[in-house]
């Protein structure tokens, strides 16, 4: 399942990547314990509570995809809200969370 975190003005803050092996800490809120599974060119996968999440950049903003594991909609919503706050801060109100997919004609 893919989600998009999109700022209405197209703003994504400068990402401050972590140390080697923890580069994706710029996406994962500090109160989550995670294991970095992969990392290539500023994007990759992390394992949080037995679930693998992929972080990537899309045309509109930051993409987050659940790669393995099952979460409730409430759990996904909390995680995405925490990621949004971690990246954009508490007071930034312009970011929306979208469920995203491919449109087939």
Describe this structure in words.
There is one protein chain. The chain is of the alpha+beta class and 105 residues long. It has one domain (2-100). The chain is built from 1 helix and 6 strands. It has a 6-stranded antiparallel sheet with strand order 2-3-4-5-1-6, with helices on one face. The model has no long low-confidence stretch (mean pLDDT 91).
Cα gyration radius (Å): 13 Å
Strand percentage lies at 35-45%
The overall average pLDDT, rounded, is: 91
Helix fraction bin: 10-25%
Number of DSSP-assigned strands: 6
Q: The biggest beta sheet, please?
A: 6 strands, antiparallel
Described by the principal axes of the CA atoms, the overall outline is globular
Order of secondary-structure elements: EEEEEHE
Number of structural units classed as domains? 1
Multimeric state: single chain
**Roughly how many Å apart are the termini?**
20 Å
If strands are numbered along the chain, what order do they take across the biggest sheet?
2-3-4-5-1-6
Structural class: alpha+beta
Low-confidence runs (pLDDT<50, min 5 residues)?
Answer: none
């Amino acid at each position: 399942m893919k989600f998009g975190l999109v700022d209405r003005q197209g703003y994504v803050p400068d990402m401050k990547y972590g140390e080697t092996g923890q580069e994706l800490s710029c996406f994962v809120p500090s109160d989550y314990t995670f294991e970095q599974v992969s990392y290539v060119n500023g994007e990759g996968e992390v394992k949080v509570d037995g679930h693998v999440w992929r972080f990537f950049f899309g045309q509109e903003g930051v993409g987050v995809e659940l790669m393995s594991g099952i979460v409730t909609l409430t759990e996904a919503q909390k995680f995405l809200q925490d990621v949004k706050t971690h990246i954009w801060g508490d007071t930034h109100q312009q970011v929306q969370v979208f469920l995203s997919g491919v449109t087939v004609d």
